[in-house]
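Hi all, long-time lurker, first post. I run a small reading group and we've been trying to get comfortable going from sequence to structure in the token notation. Rather than ask abstract questions, I figured I'd post a concrete chain and ask someone more experienced to write out its structure so we can walk through it together at our next meeting. Sequence below, copied exactly:
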Amino acid sequence: MLHLTVDSTQQAPEPKPRAFFAGASIVWTRQRILWAIFVVNLLVAFAGASGVAHNVGDDSGAALNHSMESVQRLVHGFDVSALAELSSLPQQPLRGMGTMSIWPSLFFLVFMIFMTGGILVSYYDDLRLDTAGFFEACGRHFWRYVRLAIYFLVVMIPLAFLGSAFGKIYGNINDTAVSPYPAVIFGAAATVFMLFLLLSVRLWFDMAQVISMAKNERRMYRMLARAAALVWNNFGSLFWLYLRISVIGWVLFGAGLYSWMMVLRPESIGLAFLLGQAMVIVWLGTRLWQRAAETEWYKQYRVSLYQPVPMPPPPVQPAVVETLTPS
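-- Answer (accepted) --
Happy to help. Here is the structure in token form:
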């Protein structure tokens, strides 16, 4: 006799290691998604940077032209300290830089929310989507994920207050303690704790997106509840899967940032541009790797829920032996 288990809150068996490597394989086989996002990111970054460059060129040209050091450090290269000095000039050449950069950032955020539905469907299905099917999935899930983004902002509010409280405590310890070590230790512990909370919340909302895509569910509050139960019951395997990919992305991005600041010369603008774009590709690729690994993990999880479990055979009744007594 076969028995089907359908309890959606039970703990799934540990996912096989192929959930980690299969995510990278999925991103590689569907790398058109990565390149499309990279191209849009490059165009948006160019639009945001061009406004800042135009503002700096118009307002601070005289200040730069009268400083050979500024010309060498900014016109023929890029130097973070020179940029800081430029922001302190009385002409205020970088005024409006935040306003000019926020709109491209918001556009890219909306673009990524729109693309998420098509990305998850493409990663979840075994067959590749054509262009029409991909954008149809993007549009079908867009407003659902917008609602999830609003819920995410609501959840981030108490985390922001918690981070602010940690900052005040760090300041008080730093002002009152004789030794600098208590403040350093507290700051490191608070940073690790906040990072853990942020990764956990992001994993929670990632799985809510995956579940809503797999079940084609419109009610996002239900998906958040199911995702919370799923992550809670399988936190070790899911968080370890998510953390490994994050660490790989941090290490590669940190190595690129170190090379950009310490190895490349300021006048190597071409090499700095190529290295910067490679860092962007690594960052986008690791994020897509996380999404692909999550969808693969969830596929394995659903298969494990509906695996037929053989029931033990009924006990064999001992044979009844009749004895004949002589009459």
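A couple of things your group might point at:
The beta strands are 2-4, 308-310.
Residues 12-305 form one domain.
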